[in-house]
Design brief:
31% of the residues lie in helices and 26% in strands. It is an alpha+beta fold and 234 residues long. It has a four-stranded antiparallel beta sheet. Strands 8-9-7-12 form a four-stranded antiparallel beta sheet, with helices on one face. A two-stranded antiparallel ribbon has the order 1-2. It is flat, with a radius of gyration of 21 Å. It starts with 19 loop residues before the first helix and ends with a helix.
């Protein structure tokens, strides 16, 4: 990527491989590679971002109404990801994610919504790029022993979760936060059995959703820190 004013490169590049496996192998071989004395490459899988974060949403709006309203003012919208308040499932948390069919559609929607000329519900909305959903390293995911459990009803306690999931194997710990929780197993196979056995089951009146917890994304945290530094110094 070149700077049109200085003619110098911007310090990063995109490299396209013929298949995903080759790209992942290149990441393993080249990430943290010392390209010259004291200078190391940072290499990761690039993800075409097709998701926008939208704030300032009326809390009584449903997923269906948001999808309908934003489809009227933007093109290529395929899904709305909305989170409800833990103690009131009829209200959302005041933000959502808009999923578009491709990066081009998302970029055009972002420009249109940020222009100030387009208003939804009579008001301008806060729009930013959402962090792209990156696929974690399959080798790392194959070792994960922690479950991410969401859509928990308010009455669900850590004690109830511990009692429910310990039927599948020995637990290290359980941590509930608002309407989701992390369940740590000692054994990977027990975690997978619990996920298969409990996903979609009802717990205190709500159907729970379970996936393997993704490990912390160090590169994402580094990007967020760099972005914050830029804002503070800009």
């Amino acid at each position: 990527m070149m700077d049109p004013l200085s003619g110098q490169n911007r310090g990063y590049a995109f490299i396209t491989f013929c298949n995903k496996d080759a790209a992942q192998e290149a990441v393993k071989l080249c990430d943290n590679y010392e390209i010259r004395s004291g200078k190391y490459l940072g290499v990761c899988i690039s993800v075409a971002n097709n998701r926008l974060f939208v704030g300032s949403i009326p809390k009584n709006k449903t997923r269906e109404s948001i999808l309908e309203d934003f489809s009227k003012v933007t093109e290529g919208l395929v899904d709305v990801i909305l989170y409800h308040q833990p103690d009131d499932k009829k209200k959302n948390r005041g933000f959502c994610f808009l999923e578009y069919e491709d990066h081009k559609s998302a970029a055009q929607a972002r420009r249109r919504l940020m222009s100030g000329k387009v208003k939804v519900w009579g008001n301008p909305v806060t729009v930013e790029w959402a962090d792209p959903v990156e696929e974690p390293d399959p080798d790392i995911m194959a070792k994960v022993k922690v479950l991410f459990v969401r859509n928990l009803a308010t009455p669900v306690t850590e004690e109830l979760l511990e009692k429910t999931f310990s039927e599948f194997g020995k637990l290290e710990r359980v941590k509930k936060l608002k309407d989701y929780a992390f369940v740590h197993f000692e054994d990977r196979n027990a975690a997978v059995k619990a996920m298969q056995g409990m996903n979609g089951r009802e717990l205190e009146g709500e159907e729970i959703e379970i996936v393997l917890a993704k490990p912390p994304d160090k590169k994402r945290k580094e990007r967020q820190a760099a972005r914050q530094t830029t804002r503070n110094t800009g």
